[in-house]
Amino acid sequence: MPAASVAAADIVKSSNFLRQIIENDLSQGTYAQRHWAGTPGDAAHHAAGAPDPAKIRTRFPPEPNGYLHVGHAKSICLNFGLARDYGGVCHMRFDDTNPEKEDTEYVNSILDAVQWLGFDWQVNGQSHLFQASDYFDLMYRAAEYLIESGNAYVDEQTPDQMRANRGDFGKPGVDSPYRSRSPAENLARFREMRDGQHADGAMVLRSKIDMASPNINMRDPAIYRIRRATHHNTGDKWCIYPMYTFAHPIEDALEQITHSICTLEFEDQRPFYDWLMARLIEGGLLADPPPRQYEFARLNLTYVITSKRRLAQLVTENKVNGWDDPRMPTIVGLRRRGYTPAALQTFAERIGVTKSDSWIDYATLEGCLREDLDVSAPRAMAVLDPVKLILTNWHEVMGQGILDDCSAPVHPHHPELGKRHFKMGQEVWIERSDFMEVPSKGFFRLFPGNRVRLKYGHVIECTDAIKDEAGSAIAIRATVIKDTKSGTPGSDRIKVKGVITWVGADDGVPAQVRLYDRLFLDPQPDVGGKDFLESLNPDSLKVTTAIVEPSLAMAQPDDKFQFERHGYFVADRVDHSQGKPVFNLAVGLKDSWGR
Ligand code: ATP
Ligand code: MG
Questions:
Q1: pLDDT digits over 429-465, tens only?
Q2: Within 13 Å, how many C-alpha atoms sit on residue 130's CB side?
Q3: Is 308 a catalytic site residue?
Q4: Which residue, 24, 49, 21, 45, is CA-closest to 35?
């Protein structure tokens, strides 16, 4: 049995700007007076509730339009981790306000991924799983309030006119001719939009802020559009849908979020976020104090792409074998590759959060997995490129037909996990690369006349190789040296420079081994308009038939092992069975890539 993985509490936490903001808010009591009605809602709803038992509220708000990837894992660990560390609650929210792109298939995979990573939206017996589309009524009310208070208008310019009149960085925008309509006219128009009296795209509801603002996002951004589309939650109830920039702040406020953490590209949206909160609090719709938005740098990982659209392209063009291909940076892919929740949590903590974009070396991610598996993974021997080794004097030295019992610790630092047992006989499997007819300098393994130890077994002396017509070795021959069995008295009287791993021909188990490497050869495959498909690594997957020690015959899908000398492997969660073992390379023993 593997030892316990690194517990979340043992992961070293470093401070960051978000922790400082939260600690400051807690010491100032910024959110101490908030109420929470037990469910999301407007100001009156929460005012009738009890003081919020959660000190802070964060949220993880994916759009259910694809599979989560390693970048999302960073966001999940951040939001759920901050809530856990500061006596708060993190809401799991589906940002499903866009009717066209979403699918319930993704909803389940996202929930699964968050739970697998070790987080829960169920806190003190209460579920905090929400969907933004449940707030459409309240969003609609907020829009009507903005119209009534003179803060929004229906614009009937064409999309082209609207774009032209928005101006650009050097040029202020131009007011729409519809901007000066009265609230009553706008309200009537907006209700017509809602009632399906206008065609898709014929008009939009816009906030009324400042067409000359240096921040283009403040030049009367659109907040509602007409779109006849069936929504997976609300069906055909609506033919108008809120824009993301309008919906998201309201979702946060209705859920009494305190710290709304998003990636840097939303920095320019923050003034609108704050503007909207101020208007809706003035109108008594939303509770005060409002949530605040904070931005952090998204994860960029070398040799990895995280664009959902491009990941989808890899799948649909069969460059990989599905979303859970072990080479994919999706959470399902990483999981199948052998990644553990502890490794991903450590990774998120180690890379930290910053305010400026940077690239994280892929080796950092691998290092986190290696650390976790080094502590937890049972050891085993496996021969990945097998060639037979024949011990020609075995029967004379050991006795006719003898199979010698050998054993090794399951884990070198955990004697309590016991031993694994395997047998050595006249024939064993060794790595082809452990034999050289003519040794190169510094090669201490098998060559004629040299002695090595078969790990956990006897010292042997190489005699020669049996070769095929082309001259390549089909079997290696050696003699076993009496009384040198590892761990027996006097076994070290013969000194050897090399120790090699092996698997007995009598009890070894054939297994398929999938050797994965990076999917891309370019450290930044999709930066600067490059075609990421051009840098696909043609050798990202090699499938071999290995011989593994008998302890692996009992492996269950998802079980992880260190194959001595080779690296960490996982029994494939899809294709592995005890009758047909399949192991994936999770990560090598050392960071040797590119050397
Ligand atoms: P899309 O590619 O469709 O724009 P997205 O990758 O932004 O989507 P969302 O479902 O909107 O995915 O993301 C949910 C959350 O995950 C957001 O809060 C977003 O900030 C965060 N997130 C997404 N990608 C990364 C990343 N690479 N690093 C850190 N956080 C990320
Ligand atoms: Mg997004």
A1: 999 999 999 999 999 999 999 999 999 999 999 999 9
A2: 28
A3: yes
A4: 49
Instruction: Return the best residue to mutate from 75, 78, 344, 527 for the ligand 1 pocket (most ligand atoms within 8 A of CB).
Output: 75
CA atoms within 13 A on the CB side of 181: 23
Q: In Å, what is the CA distance from 509 to each residue of 163, 384, 428, 456, 565?
A: 67, 12, 12, 18, 18
For ligand 1, atom 25, which residue shows the shortest CA distance? Answer: 71
* Same domain flag for 570 and 446: no
Q: What CATH number should be reported for the domain holding residue 492?
A: 2.40.240.10
Cβ atoms within 10 Å of 234's Cβ, excluding its own: 16
Q: State the closest ligand 1 atom to the C-alpha of 298, by its place in the atom list counted from 1.
A: 28
Looking at the domain assignment, is residue 144 inside a domain?
Answer: no
Q: Quick one: 22 and 108 in the same domain?
A: yes
Task: Verify that 77 and 26 share a domain, yes or no.
Answer: yes
Q: 69 with 114, same domain?
A: yes
Domain residue limits at 481: 382-501
Asked whether the predicted pLDDT for residue 4 surpasses 90, the reply is: no
Per-residue confidence (pLDDT) for residue 13, from 0 to 100? 72
10 Å Cβ neighbour count for 374?
A: 13
Q: Nearest to residue 206, comparing CAs of 170, 161, 262, 260?
A: 161
Residues 486, 543 share a domain: no
Pair 550, 562 in one domain: yes
Place of tokens 């050897």: 496
pTM of the model: 0.94
141 lies in a domain?
no
Structure tokens that stand for 589 in this block: 């023993």
| Tokens encoding 92 | 């799991």
In this prediction, residue 2 has a pLDDT band, given cuts at 50, 70 and 90, of very low
Among 501, 532, 559, identify where a domain stops. 501
456 with 540, same domain: the answer is no
Q: Is there a contact between 465 and 435 (Cβ–Cβ < 8 Å)?
A: yes
Domain membership flag for residue 333: yes
**Ligand 1: does its nearest atom lie under 6 Å from the Cβ of 263?**
yes
